[in-house]
C-alpha cells in the first residue's frame, strides 16, 4: 500500500468516526428537543461538510512545507514596503529564471472559510484554509517588476509573517532542444507540459497505456463492459495521436504503446508475464496501436509484457534521440502507472547508445492534496505540499501565455476522458463551494483538470542535467 492509499484509508476512518459522533448528537437532539430537529440539523451539517470540509487534505494546514534546494542555489533577502516586495540588495536577473519566494503565512479568521491567497501583481496564488506555516510562492515571469521593487504583494484572508527569501534557479531554454514527453495515459502530456511541448522546436509524445478502464460512461450507451472498455481505449489511443497535432506536433512523432491501464505494476513485477486488460477482455496491445506511423518491437506479438515495453521505449528513444525528456516524478506523484512510467524510462535508458542531457519530472497527482494546484484557473502555481526534505530538488517553471492557456484548455477539451459530466454529488458540492466558499469554476470546462492544469505556470522538476 503506497502512502496516498494509507492517507486515504486514515481519512475515511476519521470520517466514519465523525459521522458516528454526528449521528449520536442528532439522536440526542431528537430525543431531548423535537423529532424534526435532527432532520434540519442533518441537512445543515451536510451543507457545511460539502462547502468547507470535503477537500482531501491529508495533513495539517499548520505544517511547514519543507524543501531542500542545492547548497549553491542563489538566494536573496526581500522585504515588504508599502505593499510591494522589495529586494534587500540590487538583483541582477535575466528574466527567464525560475523564481521561488519562501514565506511564512498566517491565516486570518476569514481564511478558515474562504481560501487564503497571496495576491501578486496580476496573479493570485491560493493555499489551504487555516494556513499557518512556511509556503513557497512562484514569481517566475515577474523578474523585471521584482528587481525594480515594483511587484505588488499582499495577503488575502492571510498575512505574511517575517521576511521573505528569494530562491533563483537559472535554466537553459529547454524548448530549443529536442523534446520527448512520456505520458502514462492520454492527457498526461497535455496536463503537465502542453505549453512546453507546443513551443518546442521539435516534440515527441509517447503514451504508454490506452487508459481503457472505468468506462461506465460508455456502458450507459448500452455497451457491455468489455466493449465499452475497448471503445474507450480506442478513443483515448486516437486522442494520444491526434490532440498533439493541435500544438503542431506531427502525427509521426506521436506514439501510442497500447499497454493496459493499471497493469504496469504487475508487468514490472513479472517482466516476461503478459498482463491482460482488467476490463477490455484483451491480451493483445495491437488494437490500440493502429494509429502509429511506424512499427515497434512489441508489434510482433502484441504481448503486454514489461520486456516488450522496455524494447518499445528503446526503439522510440533511438528513433527520436531526445535531448530533454519530460516524465512523471515518483517523488511527488503516487499514481502507480506514473511511477512505473518513470521506472520504465529509466530502465530503457540503461546502456542505450543515446542519452538525453536533461530529465524533467512532473506530478499530475499528489499524495497529500487532491486540490493542488489550489486556486483558480489561470492563476500561478505555487510549490506543492512537501514534508520530507530528504532529496535535493530543483524546480523549473515556464510561463504560459493567455493564448497558450486557451489552446491548452481546448486540447484538454478534445480528450474524451475529460468530457463526461461529473457525478451529481460532485456538481452539487461545487455549487455549494461556489456559493458559500467563494470558489470560482473554470471557464474552460467542468472537469477539475481544467481548473488545475490551465494555469499561468507549468511547474516541472529537474531530475537530471548534464
UniProtKB/TrEMBL annotation:
It holds the Pfam family PIG-L. Gene3D superfamilies: LmbE-like. Keywords: Membrane, Transmembrane, Transmembrane helix. The chain crosses the membrane at residues 20-48. Signal peptide: none annotated. It comes from the Bacteria. This is PIG-L family deacetylase. It comes from Pseudomonas fluorescens.
Amino acid at each position: 500500500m503506497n502512502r496516498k492509499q494509507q492517507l486515504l484509508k486514515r481519512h475515511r476512518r476519521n470520517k466514519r468516526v465523525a459521522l458516528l459522533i454526528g449521528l449520536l448528537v442528532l439522536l440526542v437532539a431528537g430525543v431531548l428537543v423535537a423529532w424534526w430537529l435532527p432532520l434540519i440539523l442533518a441537512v445543515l451539517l451536510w451543507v457545511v461538510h460539502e462547502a468547507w470540509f470535503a477537500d482531501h487534505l491529508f495533513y495539517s494546514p499548520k505544517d511547514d512545507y519543507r524543501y531542500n534546494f542545492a547548497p549553491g542555489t542563489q538566494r536573496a533577502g526581500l522585504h515588504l514596503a508599502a505593499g510591494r516586495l522589495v529586494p534587500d540588495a540590487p538583483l541582477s536577473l535575466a528574466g527567464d529564471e525560475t523564481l521561488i519566494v519562501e514565506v511564512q503565512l498566517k491565516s486570518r479568521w476569514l481564511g478558515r472559510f474562504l481560501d487564503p491567497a497571496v495576491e501578486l501583481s496580476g496573479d493570485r496564488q491560493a493555499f489551504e484554509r487555516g494556513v499557518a506555516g512556511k509556503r513557497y510562492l512562484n514569481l517566475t515571469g515577474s523578474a523585471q517588476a521584482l528587481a525594480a521593487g515594483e511587484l505588488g504583494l499582499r495577503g488575502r484572508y492571510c498575512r505574511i509573517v517575517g521576511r521573505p527569501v528569494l530562491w533563483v534557479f537559472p535554466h537553459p531554454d529547454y524548448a530549443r532542444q529536442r523534446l520527448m514527453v512520456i505520458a502514462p495515459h492520454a492527457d498526461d502530456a497535455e496536463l503537465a507540459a502542453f505549453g512546453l511541448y507546443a513551443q518546442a522546436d521539435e516534440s515527441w509524445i509517447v503514451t504508454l497505456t490506452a487508459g481503457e478502464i472505468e468506462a461506465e460512461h460508455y456502458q450507459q450507451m448500452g455497451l457491455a463492459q468489455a466493449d465499452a472498455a475497448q471503445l474507450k481505449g480506442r478513443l483515448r489511443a486516437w486522442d494520444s495521436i491526434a490532440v498533439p497535432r493541435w500544438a503542431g506536433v506531427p502525427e509521426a512523432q506521436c506514439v501510442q504503446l497500447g499497454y493496459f491501464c493499471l497493469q504496469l505494476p504487475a508487468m514490472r513485477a513479472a517482466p516476461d508475464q503478459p498482463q491482460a486488460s482488467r476490463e477490455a477482455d484483451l491480451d493483445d496491445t495491437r488494437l490500440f496501436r493502429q494509429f502509429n506511423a511506424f512499427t515497434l518491437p512489441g508489434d510482433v506479438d502484441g504481448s503486454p509484457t514489461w520486456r516488450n515495453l522496455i524494447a518499445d521505449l528503446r526503439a522510440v528513444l533511438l528513433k527520436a534521440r531526445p535531448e530533454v525528456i519530460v516524465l512523471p516524478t515518483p517523488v511527488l506523484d503516487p499514481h502507480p502507472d506514473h511511477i512505473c512510467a518513470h521506472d520504465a524510462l529509466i530502465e530503457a535508458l540503461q546502456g542505450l547508445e543515446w542519452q538525453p542531457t536533461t530529465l524533467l519530472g512532473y506530478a499530475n497527482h499528489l499524495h497529500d492534496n487532491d486540490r493542488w494546484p489550489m486556486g483558480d484557473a489561470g492563476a500561478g502555481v505555487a510549490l506543492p505540499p512537501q514534508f520530507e526534505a530528504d532529496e535535493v530538488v530543483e524546480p523549473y517553471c515556464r510561463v504560459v501565455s493567455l493564448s497558450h492557456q486557451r489552446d491548452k484548455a481546448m486540447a484538454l477539451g478534445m480528450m474524451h476522458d475529460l468530457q463526461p459530466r461529473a457525478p451529481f454529488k460532485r456538481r452539487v458540492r461545487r455549487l455549494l463551494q461556489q456559493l458559500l466558499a467563494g470558489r470560482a469554476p473554470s471557464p474552460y470546462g467542468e472537469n477539475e483538470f481544467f481548473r488545475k492544469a490551465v494555469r499561468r505556470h507549468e511547474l516541472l522538476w529537474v531530475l537530471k542535467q548534464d
